[in-house]
Amino acid sequence: MDSIKVFSPGSITNLSCGYDILGLCLQNRGDEITVSKTNKKGIIIKSVEGYHLTKDINKNVAGIAAQALLKNINVNYGFEIEIKKGIKPGSGIGSSAASSAGTVFAINQLLDSPFSHLDLIKSSMEGERFVSGSYHADNVAPIIIGGITLVRSIESIDVIKLPSPKSLEVIIVRPNIEIKTSDSRKVVKKKVKIEKMVQQSANLGSFISSLYTEDFDLMSKSVVDEIIEPDRSMLIPEFDNIKKISKYSGAIAVGISGSGPSIFSLSNNSSTSNKILDNITSHFEKLNIDYDGFVSKINTTGIKILETK
Ligand code: HSE
Questions:
Q1: Which CATH number belongs to the domain containing residue 262 in this structure?
Q2: Which end of the chain is flanked by fewer CB atoms within 10 Å, N or C?
Q3: Is 82 a catalytic residue?
């Protein structure tokens, strides 16, 4: 194989009760990444389409993740990366993770898969650290492994794949502003009251239980964030009203997707999902707020190979 094209999907993280540890892989938004072998050793980013991003391999997450992966192996050829961005940077649905994870996944395929999923997560995290200022694997893990994941540790990487209830859908709405992950992380308080920690741990545990039992009432009570959302939601126009509208329209839960500004809602019924999307988007239209919105099932398989040559 000399060349491979992959679809690297978006992801929702935190899911309100699992800051930096929970993530969910989306089905219908993502980057298309083509990696081809070259005679000359080294990595180059040949093109980036869709959004204006640097081709400098030391400043683009795809180049950073690729270098982190390749430093562990001797290869006597090089790699040329072409990126078609389908996810807007700074949107809260894992734009940087899609580029870094998609690139290392594609390179691993060209090398005949010497690296494990955990190796790919580890090198993708270098891209995440570059854009956000700290290591976290909650976006890259579900993209590489698929479905809903829990990152137990990033020291010696440990990721658990959780069940994805078949009927579960997510509704994503993004007011058209950019929030840099690094800025959004700065508003997160470094100290948490013990009572809040206890409640958040209980919410996380009961959310995980609800995935196994498909108990959507329990899920509704569990996907709650009293620690980070109150501070971060200030950065998102109309967040409180959107939350009310979505809940009133039948959402199981509503929260900030990753570091925002995207807002996610959960539903277990397609017509409810469409109603939630319609009601939120008409609210934005009334206020003349530009937005993007869509409904997605959970992508249980993650990055997909589109073409090989
Ligand atoms: N868990 C991270 C955050 C995801 O909320 O900052 C950002 O990509």
A1: 3.30.70.890
A2: C
A3: no
